[in-house]
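Interim report, section 4.2 (structural modelling).
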Amino acid sequence: MASTKNIILAGGIIALCAGSLFILFVGSSVPIYSVKELMDDPNAESYIDRRIQIVGNVTTITNITHFTITDPEIVDPSLKIQVVAPVTVVRPQRFALDKTVVVEGKLLSIDGIWLFKASMISTKCPSKYE
Amino acid sequence: MIYIGFGTFGIDLGAIILVISLVAFILDAVFVLLGKYVEKWEIYSEMSLSTGMVALLIAFLYFAFSVVTNDYTFFYVSEYVNNDMDFFFKLSALWSGQAGSYFFWAFLIGVAYYIFRLLFREYAHEPLFWRAFALAAIQVAVLLLLAVMSNPFKLNKSIRSDGLGLNPFLMNIWNVIHPPVIFIGYALCLIPMVIAIARISLLEDGKVPDFEGKQKLDSFFEFTVSAAWLILSSGIIVGGYWAYITLGWGGFWAWDPVETASLVPWLFITLYYHGKPFLRKHEYLNNYIVSMSYVGALFVTYITRGGIINSVHAFVPGAGLETILEHPFSILKDIPFLDILHPLLKDIPFIPRNSFIMSFILRFIPEERILILFILILTSFLLPHILGFTRREIGTIPRLIGRDDLKASRTRMTAIKISFIAGLIGTYVIVFALITPVIYDMLGYLVTLSNDGFNGRIIIDKPIYNTIIAVFGGAMLLAQFFCTFFPRISINRKFQLLTGGVAAGIIFSVTGYFYRTGSFKSFFSSSNPIVSILSNFWTSSEKANLVLPLIIIGIIGLIWEFIQVALKEEKHFIRKTSQVMLHLSFLVIILGALMSANMTNSQLVIGYNGDQIEITGSSLTITILDLERIIPESGQHSVEYNTRFMISSGSNVIGFGISSLYWDTAYERFGINNRQGQDVTIITNLFSDIYVVSVWDPNLDLNLYNHPLFGFTGVALQVKIIPYVNILWAGCILLHFAIIPLTVGRFFSLKDIMKPKDEQEKNIKQNEGDGTNSANGDIKNG
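Predicted structure of the assembly:
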C-alpha cells in the first residue's frame, strides 16, 4: 500500500508541476494567427499593442517598408493586412511575392485598414517548399 | 527505371526490392520474437535479415543512382533534381525530400542493426541479446514501412526531360553535410536504446545478471553512445553555423521547435556522461537515460514531419489520414502488390469523417505516417517506464540523494548529482515546452468543442527557453563549483570563490545597467579607465551580466585544472583531460553565446561610391570602394548589384568584402516572379564578426540602385557587428577535442575486446613485455 501511496503522491506532484508549467508557458507564449483567424476574431481589438505573430502570403510589396499579406489558405482579397516593417527589420533570404511569411510584432489598428507593425519577419526553412 | 508490368499496370523494380526488404525485415522481427517457439530460429532470422539488408542496400543504391543520373521517370527525381545541378547537390537531394529522408533514415537504421547482429550473432541465444535484436528489428521494420508508404520509387505519368530541382537555398555545401550527419547520429542512438531497454527488462535487484558476451556488449554500447554523442554534436554545430551565415534564419540558435527538439537526444547522452560517476550504481536510471536519446530522435522526426508545431523547418504534412481513418483499407491503394485488394476493401468504415474524435486525432496526428511514428514514439517512450514500474526500479530513483550525500566528504558527488538532476528536469521541461502548443490546442478543442479552441494557436518563444536554460543551467553552473571547476581546493575556498563570483556578478550587472541607461554620468563617463575597459564586456542583458563573472571563474578553474592534469597526472590522463576540456568547452560556448547575442550592434548605413561611413557605437569605418551593376547573360541572376567595401579601424584595415544584391530567376520554374536575393558577407577577425548585407532602397526616392541618369550610385548596407562570436565557435571545436579521444579510445577498446581470446592473450603478454600502458586501458578504467 505504501508504494501505491508513493506512486499517487509522485503522480500528483508531477501533475501539479506540469500544470503549473503549462499555465506559465501559455501565459508567456505568443499567439499565432493566420490572416483569416485574426480578422474573424471578434476580440481582435484586444490584440492592439500586444505582441503576436501572423502567418500570411505576401501579395503586394508597396514599397520598401510596406507590404500586404493575405490568408495563406483562403483566397479572399478582402482578408488582407498591411504590414509596416522598418528597413532595419531584416528581410529573410526567401522573402518575396507569393511566399508564406511569419511576421511578429504589434497590431496598430483595425479600423478600415488592418495595420500591423512588424519587428521580425521570417520565412520557412526551404524543406517546407518541397 | 526498370519497369515491371504491362501498360499502366506495373511498378518499378526499386519499389519491388524495397517491399522485399520490408517483408524480410518483418520476417526477421517475427522469427526473433517467436524465437522460443521456433526451432533453429537464429538461422531463419539471419536468412531473413541478410535478405532484407541486401535488398535494402540494392534499393538504396538504385535510388541514389537514379537521383544522381537524373532519371526523371521517378516523381522524386523530377521534384528535387534538375539538369543544372552538380553531383554533390544531386547527392544531397537524396535526403532533401520527405520520401528520400524516410528512406535514408530507414537505410541507416537497417545498417546499424545489421552490424549489431553480425557482431553478436553467436550470442543470439542469450535473453538480453534476443530482446535487443527483437526491439531493433521492430524499429527497422516500422521505419522501412514509413519509407515504403512514402514510395521514393513513385513513377511520373508523363515523360520529363528536366526536373524542378532542389530549392536554391538547399543547394549549398551545408545541405550536403548537415542532414546526413544528424541522421547518422540518430541512427547510432538506436543500438544503445535497444541494449538499454533489454538490460532494464532483465534487472534483478537493480543489477543486470551476468551473461555470455556481456563484456563485449558493454564495450560496444559505450562505443556507440560516444560515437552518437560525437556525431550529434557535430551535426548540431554545423546546423547552427549554417543558420548563422544565412540571412533571416535567426542566428546560430533561434530556439525553433525543430532545433530545440534536435537538442533533446544530445542532452540525454550528455546527461548519461555527466552522471557516469554515480549512475554505475543505478543501472535503471543509467539505461533509462540512454534509451531516451533515441526516443528523442523519433520525437524530432514527429515534430519535423508532423508540421503540428509552427517551425521554420516543418514539412507540410500530407492529408491522407482522414480518409484512412474513415476507410482504413484505402491505404492499400498506394502499397505495391497490396493495391489489388483496394477495390474490395476500400469502403469498410471506421471513424466518421466529420466526427468529434476524427477532428481531435487530426489535431496532433495530421497524416498516416505520423500515426505510425506516433505509435512508435509512444511505445518506445512507455516501455522503459512500464518495465521500471513492473521491476520496481522507478521507486529507487528518489534514493539518488540520501542523507549520506549531505556529508562534507561527499560534496563533490552530491554536486554532480544535483547538477545531473537539474539537467534531467531541465531537459524534460524543454520537451514539455515543445509540446505545450499541441496540448493547448488539444485542450482548447476538448473544452470548447470548437475548431478554434482557446482562441487560436500559440508558440513558445525564445524568452521562455532562455528562462528554462537560465534556471536549470544556472543550477548546474553553481553545482559545478563544487565538483569540476576547482577539484583540488578545499570546500571553504570553493564557497569563497562562489560567493565572490556571485558578488562580482551582482556588481557587474548593476553597473552595466547604470552604464547602459546613462545614470551617474560623472562616474560612467568614457574617460574613466575602468569603465572604458568594462564597456567592452557589458552586455545588454542584466541576467547575462550577472552570470558572466561566474562563467569566467569557472573557465579559469578549468584551465588551471587542465594544466595540473597535464603536469601531474599519469593515470587516466586521456579521461581526465577530456573531462576537463568537455566542461571547459561548454562554458566557452555559453560565454560566446551570451556575449555575442547580447552585444550585437546592428544598423543600416547608406553610402555612395568612395564614402567613408562610421559605424555608430564602434571604432569601425566602412568605405565604399566600388559599385558595379552587372546584367549576366547566363546563370540564375537577371541583374546583380555588387558593392566592394573595406572595413577599417583607424588606420588598421580589418578586411575587404563584396556584398551582392540580385534578382534571382531560380523561382521562374515554379511560376514565381524573380526574387530579390542577397549574399551575406562576413568579415571575421579575432574578436568579432562583421556581417554585411546589401538591402533594397530604404526610401525609393533615393534611387540608389537605378538612378535614371547615373544608374547604380549608392548602396544601403545592413551592418551587424557580432562581438565574441568566435569564442562560441572555439568552444565548439574544443568540444570535439574532448569527445574525439573518448570515441577513438572506445573504438580501440572495442576492437581489442572483439579479438579472439588467444590473440587478446598474446597482446597482453606483448604489452607486459614492452611495459606499455595503452590509452585503451585508460578508457576502460574510466
